[in-house]
């Protein structure tokens, strides 16, 4: 093993050892605590612990101090093995029922190992560092404590899960914590609440966000934007149901390969229905509704479609990942010799869209199947070899730079993923274009070729904005809610100083609305400073302050988000503003 933090195996071993140091610290302070599990995770570690009273911030501080002490003690970690019955007796003697249960569930031939450091011994398969002194005590931070059901079962006892992180140096820890603070500031859930864009409600259901008026305004802007671009690109838009029969998904293969991500089936009049997790089966049936000739291909079917996926509660994250979402989905039915041109058009649509939204930090990934995984992927080696070679050849011919990743394909075919790198956090896929030889054959789709023979079309599954929900979450976090003017739910807020100028303020608003500008007038009897601060908190791009002088001269006093631009003729302001909106400028023209 390479003993540096860049090595994943060493990093996990280091953090796993730190989780044992945490458990030892807890047991020193709360000897009656019962330990469950304490693995390393992506950005640190956690330990699930059963105690009578909830842990407090003061407890976490005390645990951190004790962990630093344990690191200074440089305790050796020594591995021992015990037969099953002796291991169970050992843990019972120490009053560790969760460890006993874990041992009892191990296979009969399992090696049961323990690691001891000083007075503390824990059931663990390892590996670990050789000494607690290898862990830098001043580079440990316990971050949060949450509830966690034992073994993820809501019928079992709720334990307390202490999360922490650690690094080889304090400087690296400080850098990581600074990134966490930045992430908190940018978290779309926090900003979404503050700007009243969307909400969640436990009575409605987890993972079921609801968009408030301002959020839905932004939603409509995105929806209209991508629909207009698709119409110019020859797409035909459809509307299909949010449910389908189980037979539909058995035909497509989703029932076999994707059922664990689908909501439970519903029985209705001797038929079984499910909420749809995606839209391709519906679009396949639309294509099959009438005969096709090579002359009318490609057929491009698009839809802003409501979909439902049963995501685990621990993975839900605002509108970035929910159980209900809307996809900017489309399916292109093409002949084999049209694949290159259609993929090129999809890629161009992605790139021009990213340009409008100022997205520059992304990479292209050719996602391929794992040939050894016969459960996740449709089992047809010849089809996969054909599809993967075809998509790779197209990307090469287009001169695109991409990396290849095994095991990331859709179950029916390879795909080109566009992964964005957000301002904070890990990268994720925003747009995708998938090449599919599988589903058209499953649905017996055909077209008549030049020679009069019936052939099976190829399908491109593609999403430019991905899901509108996730795309909006991305925009919120990138801009911290300070959207460019063309995207802002409220573009102008008019702030009259006195009641005398209300008629002029309302006329200015009406003129702007006639130009298509989204405007609000604040007629409340509040001080001007309060109104300005509130509009600033709402991150409105332009505030127009109107007093007697402005009303008399036909001017407006313009304030941007970060500067007071002074008075100018209303007509001049309107011209510049509409130019900024029409050009989708990402910066103010004032």
The parts where pLDDT drops under 50 for at least 5 residues are: none
Main pleated-sheet profile = 8 strands, mixed
User: Distance between the terminal alpha carbons, to the nearest Å?
Assistant: 58 Å
**From the structure provided, what is the oligomeric state, counting identical versus distinct chains?**
single chain
DSSP E strands, number: 28
The total of helices stands at: 18
Helix content, binned percent: 25-40%
Overall 3D form: globular
Kindly report the average pLDDT value: 93
- Radius of gyration from CA coordinates: 29 Å
Structural class: alpha+beta
Read across the widest sheet, the strand sequence of neighbours is 11-15-16-23-20-19-17-18
Beta-strand content: 15-25%
Task: Please give a quick description of this structure.
By secondary structure, this protein is α+β, with helices and mostly antiparallel strands. Helix 6 (188-194) packs across helix 14 (468-479).
Per-chain topology:
Layout: H1 8-29, E1 34-35, E2 40-41, E3 44-50, H2 57-73, E4 77-81, H3 84-93, H4 97-104, E5 113-117, E6 120-123, E7 140-149, E8 158-166, H5 170-186, H6 188-194, E9 198-199, E10 210-211, H7 213-232, E11 236-237, E12 243-245, H8 246-252, H9 254-257, E13 266-268, E14 271-275, H10 280-287, E15 299-308, E16 324-334, H11 339-357, E17 362-368, H12 381-397, E18 403-406, E19 415-420, E20 428-436, H13 438-442, E21 447-448, E22 454-455, E23 458-467, H14 468-479, E24 492-496, H15 502-514, E25 519-521, H16 528-537, E26 542-546, H17 548-553, E27 555-559, E28 564-569, H18 570-582
Parallel strand pairs: 11-15, 17-18, 24-25, 24-26
Antiparallel strand pairs: 1-3, 2-3, 3-8, 4-5, 5-6, 7-8, 9-10, 12-14, 13-14, 15-16, 16-23, 17-19, 19-20, 20-23, 21-22, 26-27, 27-28
């Amino acid at each position: 093993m390479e003993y540096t933090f860049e090595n994943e195996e060493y990093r996990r071993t280091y953090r796993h050892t730190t989780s044992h140091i945490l458990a030892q610290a807890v047991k020193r302070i709360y000897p009656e605590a019962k330990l469950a599990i304490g693995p390393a995770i992506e950005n640190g570690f956690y330990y699930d612990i059963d105690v009578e009273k909830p842990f407090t911030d003061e407890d976490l501080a005390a645990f951190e101090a004790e962990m630093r002490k344990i690191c200074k003690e440089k305790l050796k970690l020594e591995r021992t093995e015990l037969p099953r019955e002796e291991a169970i007796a050992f843990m019972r003697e120490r009053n560790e029922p969760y460890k006993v249960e874990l041992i009892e569930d191990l296979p009969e031939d399992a090696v049961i190992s323990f690691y001891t450091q000083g007075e503390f011994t824990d059931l663990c398969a390892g590996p670990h560092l050789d000494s607690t002194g290898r862990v830098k005590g001043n580079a440990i931070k316990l971050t949060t404590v949450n509830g966690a059901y034992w073994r993820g079962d809501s019928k079992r006892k709720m334990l307390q899960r202490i999360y922490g992180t650690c690094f080889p140096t304090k400087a690296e820890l400080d850098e990581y914590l600074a990134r966490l603070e930045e992430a908190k500031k940018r978290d779309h859930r926090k900003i979404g609440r503050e700007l009243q864009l969307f909400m969640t409600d436990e009575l409605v259901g987890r993972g079921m966000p609801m968009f408030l008026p301002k959020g839905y305004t932004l939603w409509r802007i995105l929806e209209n934007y991508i629909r207009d671009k698709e119409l110019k690109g020859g797409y035909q838009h459809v509307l299909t149901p949010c449910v389908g029969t189980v037979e539909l998904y058995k035909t497509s293969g989703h029932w076999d390969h994707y059922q664990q991500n689908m909501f439970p089936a519903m029985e209705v009049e001797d038929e079984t229905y499910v909420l749809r997790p995606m839209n391709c089966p519906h679009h396949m049936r639309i294509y099959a509704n009438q005969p096709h000739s090579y002359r009318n291909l490609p057929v491009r079917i698009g839809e802003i479609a409501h979909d439902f996926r049963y995501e685990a509660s621990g993975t839900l994250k605002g509108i970035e990942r929910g159980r209900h979402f809307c996809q900017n989905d489309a399916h292109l039915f093409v002949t084999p010799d049209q694949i290159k041109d259609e993929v090129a058009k999809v890629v161009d649509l992605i790139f021009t869209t990213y340009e409008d939204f100022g997205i520059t930090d992304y990479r292209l990934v050719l996602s391929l199947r794992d040939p050894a995984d016969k459960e996740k992927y449709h089992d047809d080696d010849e089809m996969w070899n054909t599809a993967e070679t075809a998509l790779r050849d197209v990307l090469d011919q287009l001169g695109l730079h991409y990396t290849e990743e095994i095991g990331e394909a859709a179950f029916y075919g390879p795909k080109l993923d566009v992964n964005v790198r957000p301002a904070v956090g890990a990268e994720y896929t925003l747009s995708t274009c998938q090449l599919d030889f599988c589903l058209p054959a499953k649905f017996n789709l055909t077209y008549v070729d030049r020679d009069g023979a019936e052939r099976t079309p190829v399908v491109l599954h593609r999403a430019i904005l991905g899901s509108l929900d996730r795309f909006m979450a991305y925009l919120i976090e990138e801009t911290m809610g300070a959207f460019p003017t063309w995207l802002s739910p409220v573009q102008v807020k008019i702030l009259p100083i006195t009641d005398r100028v209300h008629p002029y303020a309302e006329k200015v608003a009406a003129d702007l609305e006639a130009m298509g500008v989204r405007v609000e007038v604040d007629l409340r009897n509040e001080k001007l400073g309060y109104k300005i601060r509130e509009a600033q908190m709402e991150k409105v791009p332009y505030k127009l302050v109107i007093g007697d002088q402005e009303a008399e001269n036909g001017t407006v006093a313009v304030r941007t988000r970060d500067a007071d631009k002074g008075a100018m003729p209303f007509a001049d302001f309107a011209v510049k503003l509409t130019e900024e909106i029409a050009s989708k400028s990402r910066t103010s023209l004032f």
